[in-house]
Write a structure and sequence with these properties.
about 120 residues, 2 domains, 2 strands, mainly alpha
């Protein structure tokens, strides 16, 4: 590994972490402390930054949402998710919404009584 490359990577990562902290601090200083409060602003900001303000619309009830008919909808949806994940301190993979099947099995197993657990263990042996 080259020292010069490592220094450049360190600078990039440091900048990213600082910007993420600034994002969190900025949102909280505006009183936007929950994802429900943050999301409409994030949608508008992402659309403004990436599609000159296009790509979102407002429902008749006032809910701000991405425009599913926009040509770059999937891209915008991913970028909104990335910002929201950063605000929650998560990564894209951590919030994919897919439950780990092993965790699901363990949770289900733990809900069984002792007799049922022994039967499962016996069946797996």
């Amino acid at each position: 590994m080259k020292d010069a490359t490592q220094k450049q990577v360190n600078t990039i990562v440091s900048k990213f972490l600082t910007q993420q902290d600034d994002l969190l601090i900025g949102m909280h200083s505006l009183g936007l402390d929950t994802p429900q409060l943050q999301r409409p602003y994030v949608i508008k900001a992402v659309c403004e930054a990436l599609t000159a303000g296009k790509g979102w619309n407002e429902s008749s009830t006032g809910k701000v949402m991405l425009d599913t008919s926009h040509a770059r909808y999937e891209f915008l949806k991913t970028r909104v998710r990335d910002v929201m994940n950063a605000l929650k301190g998560e990564t894209r993979s951590a919030s994919s919404g897919k439950a780990d099947p092993v965790d699901a099995i363990i949770k289900a197993f733990n809900k069984l009584d002792a007799k049922q657990q022994r039967a499962v263990i016996k069946a797996l042996a």
